[in-house]
Amino acid sequence: RAFNFNAGPAALPLEVLEQAQEQFVEYKGAGMSLMEMSHRGAIYEGVHQEAEQLLRELMGIPDNYKVLFLQGGASTQFAMVPMNLLQPGKVASYVATGSWAAKAISEAKLFGETQIAASSEADKFMRIPSASELNVPAEAAYLHLTSNETIEGTQWAEYPDTGLVPLVGDMSSDILCRPLNVSQFGLIYAGAQKNLGPSGVTIAVIREDLIGTPSMPVPTMLRYSTHAKNDSLYNTPPTFAIYMTNLVLNWVKAQGGTAAVEKINLEKASLLYDTIDASNGFFRGCAQEGSRSIMNVTFRLPSEELEKLFVKESEAEGFVGLKGHRSVGGLRASIYNAVPRSSVQALAGFMNEFQRRHG
Ligand code: PLP
Question: Which residues carry this modification: N6-(pyridoxal phosphate)lysine (predicted)?
Fold first, then answer.
């Protein structure tokens, strides 16, 4: 298999793919694939409930939170959050940390007043603002942050304490990468296609008191209350994506849960950042120290020509997905939970070899 460093959809654990392959045509003697079954039948409902229970267990989700399986990607959450949580006389507060935060902010502007609690734009979004920089107005309906900026390669090391203002987190690219205190948040959402499974399902974890009647007209499918009341079975859910997510959650549990996964993730990230830092400036990390992501490692080479050559030569050796996002350039290695340590070791070796030949 390729050394897969894709940013998303991203690598899945090989064991999960093999299990899905084994069960694909004939699901546990049922005479059909799970994908051919009613979402109201006992077999699918069992999978649906197991996925919710496992997510609760792995993330330590308290009982007063609902777990929702939604569609439309994290991009739909950019609109659902303000549509459901913003009320007249309140403002939607955002931390501007980069490309994905910017998209969330521009959607919120469609629905009401927004405010920027802090921004790292002056530093080209290469750092996460510190808690002391945050200016959250008392009339904020919520404070939204992007836990991991997938494109810039920055990540919140610690989340801010927002007091009574509910904290909303886009965890699309780092959910389940480390232990988390869910009760710090009012709402967490994530598209599945990095750490949870294939694309097609979006997870939302929302505190029950935030699931009210929206103050603006909101289509039925875009209200959290619709999905909360119906255990995410109001309409046909993305059964295949939820089934695959359930397999991934079982895999995370078998790894030892989020604490064990974090340990491996830190080792993988160190392998790359140490290689960068030991290169005497040949490789330059994009994110500032203290804001470096353990999921997306972004770095530059001395010239764009060398960066192009790095991509070309790496592809010839079986590495996939190392070209940086078109909006920022450079290189990016996405090392989500399912990327094995051996792939990261191979990349560090390739980097050293590349520097020896071209440095
Ligand atoms: N937020 C973050 C941090 C992301 O990385 C992405 C996708 O890469 C999105 C939101 C958008 O997710 P989706 O493609 O599921 O709409």
Answer: 194
The number of the ligand 1 atom at minimal distance from the alpha carbon of 7 is 8
DSSP state of 323: B
Spatial separation of the C-alpha atoms in residues 80 and 84, rounded to whole Å: 6
Domain 257-358 fold:
Aspartate Aminotransferase, domain 1 (3.90.1150)
Residue of minimum CA distance from atom 3 in ligand 1: 172
For this complex, say whether ipTM is above 0.85.
yes
Six-digit token string for 78: 């950019």
Q: Among this protein's residues, is 170 annotated catalytic?
A: yes
Cα angle: 29, vertex 35, 37; to 5 degrees:
70
**What is the Å distance from ligand 1's center to 97 Cα?**
14
Asked if residue 112 has its Cβ within 6 Å of ligand 1, the reply is no
Query: What rounded mean pLDDT belongs to the chain?
Result: 98
Active site residue 103: no
Give domain 14-254's CATH architecture: 3-Layer(aba) Sandwich (3.40)
Q: 216-231: per-residue pLDDT in tens?
A: 999 999 999 999 999 9
Q: Where in the chain is the domain with CATH 3.40.640.10?
A: 14-254
